[in-house]
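QUALITY CONTROL LOG
STEP: pairwise intake check
CHECKER ROLE: data steward
CRITERIA: each record must contain a sequence immediately followed by its C-alpha cells, with no blank fields

ENTRY 1 OF 2
RESULT FIELD BELOW
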Amino acid sequence: MKELELKYGCNPNQKPSRIFMQEGELPIEVLNGRPGYINFLDAFNSWQLVKELKAATGMPSAASFKHVSPAGAAVGLPLSDTLKQIYFVDGIDIDDSPIACAYARARGADRMSSYGDFIALSDTCDKATALLIKREVSDGVIAPDYTEEALQILREKRKGTYNVIKIDPTYKPAPVETKQCYGITFEQGRNEIDLSDPALFENMPTQNKAFSEEAKRDLMIALITLKYTQSNSVCYVKDGQAIGIGAGQQSRIHCTRLAGNKADIWWLRQHPKVMNLPWVEKIRRADRDNTIDIYISDDYEDVLAEGTWQMFFTEKPEPLTREEKKEWIAKNTDVALGSDAFFPFGDNIERAHKSGVTVIAQAGGSVRDDNVIETCDKYGIAMAFTGVRLFHH
C-alpha cells in the first residue's frame, strides 16, 4: 500500500487528507478501525520513542501519547503493590508480561493527560496488555505485532472501531526528511543522535560526579523521551518511568515547574490518605482520577464540599493539608531530570530539587552555567553536560 486516504486532517474542515510514501510502500497495516491524521502523527512519533527506548535499555518499552507529545513513557520493570493500586491494575495479572508492565507505567504516570491517548508498544501486544488497554479510554495502539488473543480483545473495543496499527519494525526512513509550512517546504537531516552512548555523561562539572547505573538508565529514558516531545521540554524520571513531562512551554522554568508539579502529583497519589480514600462503589476510573487530582490540589474543597463529596465517597475524607503534602513530597528521592536544551538559570535546579531530583543531564552552554553548577553543588546534585540539544517540532 503506497497511500492511505484519511477522513480529514487536524480538523474536520481540513480536506483532503492522506498519508503516503514518495517511494516504496507504507510500513504499516491497519488491522482495525480508521486512524486519523493526528492518530498517525501520535503513532509514528510514539513508535520511534519506544523503539529507541528498547534499543537503549534492552527492555520492552511503552509510551502514552497525546497531541504529538508523550504523557508517559516507561520500560517494563515490575510494579510494586502501591503502583498497581494507583495505576488501577491490581485486578489484572501483568507480572509475567514486561510489555504490560511498561504500558501500565506509561499510562499511570499522568493519567489525566493520558485520557484518550494513543499507545505505542516496542514488543508484541499480548493478552495482558490488551486487557489493560481495553479498560482505558484510548484512541488506538501501534505495535510490531499482536497475538491472536490480543487482537480479538482490541477489535471488540469501542464497538469495533478501535484503531489498531501494525508497523514493520525493520522499516528505516530516509536520512533526510521534509515538511511544509505555509506552502513552503523545509528539509533537514533526521535526528539520529544515539542517546545510549555512555560518553554523553562523561562531562560532569559538578562536585558530585556519581551516576549509578540506575541513574544512567533513567537519564537515558528522560533524554529519549525528550527527543520526541514538543519543545521546550523537561522530563523527570524515577525507577524506569517518566513521572513528569513538561512540553511545549516558551520558558524553560515553566517546563521545569510543569513537569515538577506532575511529578509531585504522581508521588502524592501514593500518600496513605489518597490510597485509603473511601470511594463509592463502581465509580468510573476517569471520575476517580479527576477527583484525586482535585483532592490533592489547593482546590480540594471542590470535591469535599457538602453535597459534593457524597457523589464520590462513602464518608467525608479529611483534606490533605499543605503541611502534609510538603512533608510527603520531601520523601521523594533519586529522581532523574533531563532537559532538551541548557538551563539558563539556577532557578530550574531549585525547582527540580523540591521534587527529589538528584541527577541531571542537560546540554550545557548557557552564559550562566556557573550559576547552574553552583546551585547543583548546593544540593549535592550530580549533573552532566551532554552537549546535545533535542528540540523537536
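ENTRY 2 OF 2
RESULT FIELD BELOW
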Amino acid sequence: MNNKQRIIKTIKIIAYLFSYMMVTVIAFNYGYMFYAVKFEAASASPNISFIFAVPFIFAILVCIILIKIIKKRMKD
C-alpha cells in the first residue's frame, strides 16, 4: 500500500467518523429540544436541531472532494 492509498483510507475513516458524530449530535439535540418544548415551554421546534448537521455535511463533502482529487492525481 503506497502513501496515496493510505491517505485516501485515512480520509475515508475521517469522513465515517464525521457521519457518526453528526448522527450523535443531532440525536442528542433533538431529544433535548423535544423535552424542552414539552416540559420547559421552549418556543423552538425540535426540528431546529437538524441545523447542526450543516457543518458535518460540509466536512464530509470536503473529504469526498479531497478523495476525488487524490484519485485523479493518482492516475496521472
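INTAKE CHECK: passed for both entries
DESCRIPTIVE NOTE, ENTRY 2: The helical segments are 3-39, 53-75.
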